[in-house]
Please model this.
Amino acid sequence: MSHGLKNSLTIVLMSVLASLCLVIQLTPRPPNVEFTSLFTFIVGFVFGSLTGALFGSFVMFVNGFFSPWGLAGLNMPFQMVGMGIVGLAGGLYRSYLRNYAPVKFCAEVAVSGAFLAVLYDFITNVGVAMSYMLFGMHPTLAVITTIAYGAPFSLIHICSNIAVFGVTFFPLVKALNNIPVVKNFG
Amino acid sequence: MVEKRTIAFITLATLVWASMATGFMTYYYLEQTRYLDQIDEKQQLLNELTENYDESITKRNLLSGDYGASVGEYQWFSGEDYSSLMEVYEKLISNLHGNYTLTLNKFPELNATYNNLCNEFQTLNEKSTVTKEEFGSLLNDFYKLLTMLAMKELEEALGKIGVIEVSISIDYGNSTIKWYNVSTSPGTTLFDLTRKIAEIEYSYWPAMEPGHILVTSINNYEEGYWIWYYRDEETSEWTFGPVGCDACILKNNGIYKWSCSS
Model:
């Protein structure tokens, strides 16, 4: 396959995945149950950390304007950084993956999903705290309050990420391996 | 021997658990603090209510005592001309004003009743003789006003500890209907609420009871008669307001309507 065609196919695949993420983001669903981090992690895992980080940031950038929860505003950069880290983690995880046994692999990915949910929620909560700070709240109190009141939502995010990463990551990566442009995995 | 990799993932899982546990602990701590603050606030309100209640009851009992003494004098009076008792009555209404100045200033319909009573008193005072019936009627009016003022004061105190939701519409009779969903304190009358949501003009009718107020214009619209209705919960139909709007105490989740008919 020529280099140009391979690049075009990569862009098409990324666009399809980005659209899929946005459609899911815009679909009515329980709060904090999302698939964007899974797709971002997969893109990072398959195409490398930089591509994953850019993909995650791009999706959150677009989502910031169309989200059913309203315009992201001041929180948008924090969402972009948070999702960028998820993409970065996908690439890093692949580079540290030596051999895999499906069960262990699924467990590791589920734990990664949970940890990334905690990290993402922490970063975005800091973003929300920033807006409180702008209204004059003390920084420490603002961060503690947002993290504390975000805890029930974080729990939903973590549980859903454990399920989504643990169950769907492995079959999805296997499916992606059937696409010629995707580097063969494992 | 456990792999380093496994330890790393166990550490990550522990971090997730620790951050969630800390988050939830802080959440519950903040919630508990909030609830305690709310309970304190409510307790303070209850204490305030008890104090106001005691004060109000003491005031009412004293004035009732004075009234009782006047009724006693009236009943045991043997002459034909009751004008000698007018001095006692003047003291009564003066005490009433002194004790309920705030309530009288706040509620114009009660102030109008008070002024009306003062005018009746002045008219009788200027007469050379006062009959038993005339003085008896003055005493009755005084007691009605005292009861209304005492009730209003208690309702005011009670109103601080709760909120009721009311829907009210103003039908101008020219296809313009405006709805208002209002949160207000218990004890509010339809007249009080209407004054809050609209600019009104009204007339005071001393002979009309219960309630002495007739609304003549709402938001400067006076092309007919303003009549109030309430939505009957059982029949779900608009029912004609049976009393003056100042005597209609609003119900929680009640639906009311002002309608202008020419």
